[in-house]
Amino acid sequence: MSDLLKAYTVNDGSLREVDGVVDAAALREAAWVDLRHASEEEKSLVEHALGIETSPVNDYEPFQVSSHFSVTEQQVTLTGLLLSVTPDGEPHLVKITFVRTKNVLITISESGAPGAADMVKECEGALSNRAGRDDIFAMLLDMIVDHTDNILDKVGHDLDRINTLVFQHHLTTKRRRLLQASPRLRNRQLESILTALGPSREILVKLRRSVLSFRRMIAFLREQELDKKLSANLDTFERDLKSIAEAESDLSTTAGFLLDAVVGYIGLLQNKVMNVLTLVATVLTPPMVIAGIYGMNFKGMPELNWTYGYPFALGLILFSSVAVFLWMRMRGL
């Protein structure tokens, strides 16, 4: 049996995976058929056995609502984008197509991404007392909410950690000064913060697209004739999506604030460097003028014949430097 084509039946109120080879007869008896990165041969088998089309409505217009949904006499086709995050933190949007026929629900995902595979496995263990196509569809929607909520929760923890690194409100004053006093350590920490902040923002952007795709899918499905139980399940799913969208908006605001804070912190550090350079240049300007004057070596300069002319020039240089430095300190510069 192919791991990419699975069929499930409902026996005595429980969901059971079809053992052995999934042929046309097994597909016609199934309540749920799952195609995950299936071959063209497997898709053709499902299409001929159930009399449906497994291809998406329109792959070439991804931002048009009408390109994701269609209704025919044989089927209702709905396409959503499921957010999947790889173990190394790289987010992907996996296209999942739901095909609702008279008695069978078919799910088609374009790849074997870890997020989609794990969600289907969770559904296999959570549908023990479900019966019927719409019950399976409702449970899949619940699993989508749980899957998305887990990703959102992890992003929230990552942003909390980044917030602590940026503002260091939990550290003592001594440890904060250590960060400010070590440019090498400071640069490494700023680089790590920006490196961690980038993936979190990318996940939130793609999560927003995922939630939007499923909200559009539910809006389209409501235009069809639905029984009361499925309609109630869609109400719950829509409320969950709204809650996730609000949480995503808050986290996006937090991520934007942290990015602005890091950029502002970098600006403060640059200003500090410029202030130091300005102070050094201002303090050294009078000594350089004095040294330039006495370095002219004109014959008519009386200081050239002084016994203590050299110490006098050095003292004048030192005095001018200290005087300018003290004046700037008094001015708070």
UniProtKB/TrEMBL annotation:
Catalysed reactions, as listed in the record: Mg(2+)(in) = Mg(2+)(out)
Domain of life of the native organism: Bacteria
Membrane-related topology note: Multi-pass membrane protein
Regions that span the bilayer: 251-269, 276-296, 308-328
InterPro entries: CorA_cytoplasmic_dom, CorA_TM1_TM2, MgTranspt_CorA/ZnTranspt_ZntB
GO molecular function: cobalt ion binding; cobalt ion transmembrane transporter activity; magnesium ion binding; magnesium ion transmembrane transporter activity
Name the record gives this protein: Magnesium transporter
Source lineage: Bacteria, Pseudomonadati, Pseudomonadota, Alphaproteobacteria, Hyphomicrobiales
